[in-house]
Design a protein that fits this description.
Blueprint lengths: L8 H9 L4 E3 L2 H5 L16 E4 L3 H14 L3 E4 L16 E4 L6 E5 L4 E4 L5 H9 L3 E2 L12 H7 L6 H4 L6 E7 L5 E3 L13 H5 L8 E8 L1 E2 L5 E7 L2 H13 L6 E6 H11 L9 E7 L4 H17 L1 E6 L3 H12 L1 H6 L3 E4 L2 E2 L5 H15 L2 E7 L4 E8 L6 H18 L15 H8 L1 H14 L12
Parallel strand pairs: 2-4, 3-4
Antiparallel strand pairs: 1-2, 5-6, 6-10, 7-11, 8-9, 8-10, 12-14, 12-15, 13-14, 13-18, 16-19, 17-19, 18-19
Helix pairs in contact: 1-3, 8-10, 8-13, 13-14, 15-16
Length: about 450
């Protein structure tokens, strides 16, 4: 790696061929792009950080990197939790924070066209002002970017009803590893011309192409949500309620779970008066119109009480519902106030949620680690958070041991080692265990065909 920036051929080429692009070369500036939110990882220091504003600037950056055989790390807002946007020594990080324009909101066709640096919450606000709704709803929606959501196929609180990010995408504009620009679709709701390249690139974490624009599906804005909390004396009864809601055919817009540890942490942080004696809590929301929402929550309450709920309470108004929703979103950050947190991301079929909860409890006891579990129980996606005393010298070894047991338990239940955070660099060895060697061989063939020099986010996913 060249250490003299003044004579670095990469830096010289970028400055000569794209003088308008902002380029960070000072070590203190590059340091801020070393890690994503997976803060416990060991990551490299980018060789340089470019902040383009146009697709053509991205094209030229990719061409320069290809000519010099320099790896590229595409980066959104840096809120990822799998190391997918962490720095690589000697690599060029392309950060998309300056490509943050909402290009168009097309009410007639219910689509929005955006650059990848647009913050999820900003898009939601912009379309809401026109009576529309963009469903993908990660817990970090106030800070995460659309490009990052596309890279990981992000999930969130609304997945149980509206699906993951890929379910709200019609088309992408991407820059390939040789600098070619392609579009993968258009504004048609139905389009089966050729392979579904859109879905191939979504979730690929920048290893196959670099997204520079997205055409996203919008919906008419639903009514304000009705919100209910159900408290349970045991994790098993909460898990049984989740399975029971699915079996009853209910599709609430939100079905979230917190166990006792994050309930208390969230209550300490937000002073909401939650039942801290409960072993688990479900937050259930309906966005159906009129009396249908009330009916849906009544049916959900009946299922919860049959499963053993000790209490069911409803938000008095939209403000109280928003406070409760924000408390759920902040569960991870509430735990971070209590120590060093390492967040995991596993998924199982909804009917197996009770067994996964029991497995997490057993794993925590076996390794003598505090684990607070919360997550999107409605689609089987759980986030066990490992909480250590700050500076605990055993944290790294225990994290690795607990991860192995969590992933094995999820796979044994027919689940996945990542529901929404992505393989990135933290779960690479588990991809073949879950998918099998033949599936990974096909993935490697696709990678080699689209990125023959191996410069796009190397070492991530595969």
């Amino acid at each position: 790696m060249t250490t003299d920036i003044a004579s670095d051929p990469l830096v010289s080429a970028i400055r000569a061929r794209i003088p308008a692009v902002r380029l960070l070369t000072e070590p203190i500036d590059r340091e801020g792009y070393r890690l994503d939110e997976t803060s416990y990882l060991r990551a490299g220091l980018p060789r340089a950080v470019a902040l383009p504003t146009t697709t053509q600037e991205v094209v030229e950056l990719v061409r320069i990197a290809a000519e010099l055989r320099v790896p590229i790390v595409p980066r959104g807002a840096g809120t990822g939790l799998s190391g997918g946007a962490a720095g690589i020594d000697g690599a060029l990080t392309i950060a998309f924070t300056a490509m943050d324009r909402i290009i168009e909101i097309d009410r007639e066709n219910l689509v929005a066209v955006v650059q990848p640096g647009v913050i999820n919450a900003h898009l939601k606000e912009a379309v809401a002002a026109q009576g529309l709704f963009y469903p993908p709803d990660p817990a970090s929606f106030e800070t995460c970017s659309i490009g990052g959501n596309l890279g990981t196929n992000a999930g969130g609180l609304c997945c149980v009803k509206y699906g993951q990010t890929r379910d709200s995408v019609l088309s992408l504009e991407v820059v390939m590893a040789d600098g070619t620009i392609i579009r993968t679709g258009g504004r048609n709701l139905k389009d089966v011309a050729g392979y579904s390249l859109t879905h191939l690139f979504i979730g690929s974490q920048g290893t196959l192409a670099i997204t520079t624009e997205a055409t996203l599906k919008l919906r008419p804005a639903p009514p304000p949500r009705l919100t209910m909390l159900a408290f349970f004396a045991t994790l098993e009864s909460a898990g049984a309620a989740v399975a029971g809601l699915a079996a009853a055919g209910l599709s609430p817009v939100t079905l979230e779970l917190l166990d006792q540890f994050p309930i208390a942490a969230a209550d300490d942080m937000n002073d909401l008066g939650l039942d801290r004696t409960a072993a688990a809590m479900l937050m259930i929301e309906s966005d159906m119109p009129g009396v249908a929402a009330t009916a849906e929550l009544e049916m959900a309450e009946a299922v919860c009480r049959t499963a053993g709920a000790t209490d069911c309470v409803r938000a008095a108004d939209t403000q109280e519902a928003d406070w409760l929703r924000q408390a759920r979103r902040a569960a991870h950050y509430a735990l971070e106030r209590l120590g060093e947190v390492r967040m995991e991301d596993v998924g199982v079929p909804r009917s197996r949620v009770p067994e996964m909860l029991r497995a997490i409890e057993s794993i925590a006891a076996r390794h003598d680690v505090r684990i607070g579990t919360f997550g999107h129980a409605g689609d089987g996606n759980l986030h066990p958070d490992l909480v250590f005393e700050r500076g605990d010298p055993t944290a790294e070894a225990k994290t690795e041991a607990v991860k192995k047991d969590l992933y094995r338990a999820a796979l044994d239940l027919g689940g996945t080692v990542t529901g929404e955070h992505g393989i990135g660099s933290t779960r690479r060895e588990w991809l073949e265990i879950q998918r099998g060697p033949d599936a990974v061989r096909v993935m490697r063939a696709i990678k080699a065909a689209l990125d023959p020099l191996g410069i796009l986010n190397p070492g991530r996913v595969l």
